[in-house]
Amino acid sequence: MSRIKDDQKDFIDKQVEERLRRANEEKHIAISFEHEISNNSYSPDGIRDKNERLRFYEQFRSKMKNMTGKTWRNFGTEKKKTGYETLPFKQFTKSMQASLKHTNIVSPDSKLDVIRVANDYRVIGKYLAGVYYIIAYDIAFSAYNH
To answer: For a Cys staple, 136 with which of 35, 55, 124, 144, CB 3.0–4.6 Å?
Structure first.
């Protein structure tokens, strides 16, 4: 008798999980910098030229404004040039993996969402429960094999 109750509980838990996932996909995207790493190699601060850094921030602001006006589902239907692509943790360089391990939301079995800010820059983060957590910036094409 106990086994049936456990199966019913598992079924209900899975249904609740699926409903929450769908509800989060329908929310407009929120952005968090809570887990941003401080390594200059993966930060806009690593852009040495002040004018280039300013250009990055202008493009970044525009991209984030566009992104937060959409749901994650709608944002995901765009091409990777304007939307995002998902990459497994193992596809990142060893240096980037070492930096990512210091966050408490990334593990070796994680998949990360990479957003193209401009042709030259990428934002690396993870989408969880309606929030896109920005973790790092690929400013020198050195975070993963492009």
So the answer is: 124
